[in-house]
Amino acid sequence: MHTPLNGSTLPPCYWVLLSPRFRIILQLKKMRTLLFLTALLYCTITWAQAPESFVDKDSKLYGFKDKSGKIIVPAKFKAIQHFSEGLAAVKLEDQWGYIDEKGTMQISPQFNEAHAFSEGLASVGRPGKRENVYGKKPEYGYIDKQGNLVLNYKYDMANNFKNGYAVVGYTTDYTTTYGAINKKGEEVIPVAYSVVNNFSEGYFQAATGDISSYKGKYGFLDVNNKIAVPFIYEDASWFVEGLASVKLGGKWGFIDPKNNTVIPFQYDGPSYFEKGKAEVQKDGKTFFIDKKGAKLK
């Protein structure tokens, strides 16, 4: 789950640059400079308009100040998270609640865990009844911005909503199985997969088998849990501009949603298309290709 702030003022949206899609970029020898700088600029502008956190040196408690350094929320919280959709999760004593940017408590402290709002909902946790080798496991549900529990406590982990769906999961002593729900709480993807990643262009990237020992296989599911691309790949990225980068036989290529190999398996790392071109690696060289696999000058 998400980690509370420890006094750092690093813009929260910078972590978008480490999200699954940007992870592909980071695996390349040369980053897509223009794309990265554009995202960085947008992130910085957005962050510049939001309050930033600070920690009181004496009390070790957290609060918020504006960009001029004026304190707008006094340091009285044990932990805080960045603002998202106008609210920030804060920990008062041993419970989490939410404040607005004026410091007014909008949702009273009542949760053992609380996370950022996304698409109008936030995952929150309470002590659960199930146990593992570490003790009682927390269980998670979702609240709206009024603090109403709209999706009941049920899962051992619950990610933010993205494009109308959220990845959820159950844990045993050492493993987690994943699925996905819609905003009605319906499991569109049963909690039965080794991996499920956020919905992109009509499909969830998923995996079966033991991925920790590299024995798992990746494929793609639609919102009805129908297999769109069979689980035959060693690794996979996400569909972007109609193509997904997948790995087979130690090399990466590109497929379409019908599992047709559009660009043969020949590259040394994953990539994705943007405006009709993708940056790839082969034989120690990095270059751009079009959607037919032709090398661009």
What is the alpha-carbon Rg in Å?
21 Å
**Please, what is the oligomeric state?**
single chain
Order of helices and strands: HHEEEEEEEEEEEEEEEEEEEEEEEEE
Q: How far apart are the termini?
A: 43 Å
- Overall morphology: globular
Please indicate the count of domains. Answer: 1
Topology summary:
Blueprint: H1 20-26, H2 33-48, E1 52-55, E2 62-65, E3 71-77, E4 79-80, E5 88-92, E6 95-99, E7 105-111, E8 113-114, E9 122-132, E10 135-143, E11 149-155, E12 157-162, E13 165-171, E14 176-182, E15 187-193, E16 195-196, E17 204-208, E18 217-221, E19 227-233, E20 235-236, E21 244-248, E22 251-255, E23 261-267, E24 278-282, E25 285-289
Antiparallel strand pairs: 1-2, 2-3, 4-5, 5-6, 6-7, 8-9, 9-10, 10-11, 12-13, 13-14, 14-15, 16-17, 17-18, 18-19, 20-21, 21-22, 22-23, 24-25
Task: Sum this structure up briefly.
This protein has 297 residues and is mostly beta strands. It has two helices and 25 strands.
Describe this protein's structure:
By secondary structure, the protein is mainly beta. The protein has one domain (12-237). It is 8% helix and 46% strand. The protein has 2 helices and 25 strands. The protein has helices at residues 20-26, 33-48, and strands at residues 52-55, 62-65, 71-77, 79-80, 88-92, 95-99, 105-111, 113-114, 122-132, 135-143, 149-155, 157-162, 165-171, 176-182, 187-193, 195-196, 204-208, 217-221, 227-233, 235-236, 244-248, 251-255, 261-267, 278-282, 285-289. Strands 4-5-6-7 form a 4-stranded antiparallel beta sheet, with no helix packed on it. A hairpin with a 2-residue loop joins strand 9 and strand 10. The longest helix is centred in the N-terminal third of the chain and has 16 residues, at 33-48. The N and C termini lie far apart (43 Å).
